[in-house]
Amino acid sequence: MRSPLCDAFGIDHPIFAFTPSEHVAAAVSRAGGLGVLGCVRFNDTDELERTLGWLDDNTDGKPYGVDVVMPMKVPTEGTSVDLQAMIPPEHLSFVERTLQQLGVPPLPEGEGRAGVLGWLHSVARSHVDVALAHRPVLIANALGSPPLDVIEKAHEHGVKVAALAGAAKHALSHVANGVDVIVAQGYEAGGHTGEIASMVLTPEIVDAVGPDVPVLGAGGIGSGRQIAASMALGAQGVWTGSIWLGTEEYQNLQSNEGWTEAFTRATSSDTVRTRIYTGKPARLLKTRWTEAWAADDAPEPLPMPLQNLLVAEAHNRINASGDPDVISMPIGQIVGRMNEVRPVAEVMADLVSGFADAVARLDKLRA
Questions:
Q1: Angle CA(190)–CA(50)–CA(183) in degrees, nearest 5?
Q2: Cβ distance 315 to 188 under 8 Å?
Q3: Predicted confidence (pLDDT) per residue in 10-47, tens digit
């Protein structure tokens, strides 16, 4: 399983793995793919500094990437206190009332009070600055093209830039801005996602940007057969995410029985695309929490970053409670295949062997 991206990034397999866990990212890179650390969870740049230092030391010299959440246009942004003041009281009361109705206990005093500030433009910029002091080979942006000066700064450090696109017109805009790699993010994906399924989206974007711009297929990919299908559609590799939530290494970041039960029992129809997580459409596991937000008496989600600030502590409380009927997690439709917890190396091996089997099966059809 090789493509020009393997040589461009110094990897064995064109499997890019987005994950909030440095342990998963390191394991993917050691196994020949490219682990991409999601930085949005880091409110403290010192913690990100330590984490990237750990990645530098625990990837056996293999490359890795980072993922930030940064709008291209710089928003008017006050302090976190200013933003909190913009959250309507009725939204705050709805969240607290819903948590009580769902039986979610409060966190211990002093825990989980801060929102995830990585959704703020200024914090995302600090993430880029910290990352460029280490050795990532890729900076990916979950909200499309980063600002032009960020792209230029990455290129000055010899770091390539990737951006997610949910439509061909978005991909063309990214290329015009200087983005190096396009991630064609299909509707099936977890987290932020558009409205076009990957079977349609990937070839549309490949045709739009032309042969000189590498495209990664994304959305619903969790087997070697699906990687083969994505590359048959013209992608040079794949961008994966949800599948790594079911790995042993991820348990270092998030581990409780409720979390594991929630995703291992889910089917591919047990997700919902909603704005309740960040203010932008994102696919989440369908639970009593998402159902509460879909009720007639629920308020409309707030725009980014206010919605995240509104629900950040609620999500911490929900996840800490360990109730699989309530737990909130961004996850894609591939969750229906995530039926057991496995080590990253085993998942990688299955992806590679499954790809080889699929290609061999197709070769027989040409005889």
A1: 30
A2: no
A3: 999 999 999 999 999 999 999 999 999 999 889 889 99
Q: What is the pLDDT of residues 277-319, one digit of tens each?
A: 989 899 999 999 999 999 999 999 999 888 988 998 999 899 8
Cα 356 to the chain's mean position, in Å? Answer: 26
Domain ranges of the chain: 4-106+116-362
Q: What are phi and psi of 316, to 5 degrees?
A: -60, -45
SS3 354: helix
Residues 248, 230: Cα–Cα separation, whole Å: 26
C-alpha distances out from residue 84 to 64, 67, 177, 222, 304, Å: 35, 25, 33, 38, 12
Lookup: tokens for 243:
């599948």
The token pair that represents 84 in the structure block:
């909190």
pTM above 0.85?
yes
| Structural class in CATH, domain 4-106+116-362 | alpha beta
The per-residue pLDDT for range 84-102, each reduced to its tens digit, is 788 999 999 999 999 999 9
For residue 86, the SS3 value is coil
Rounded Cα distance, 104 and 322, in Å: 9
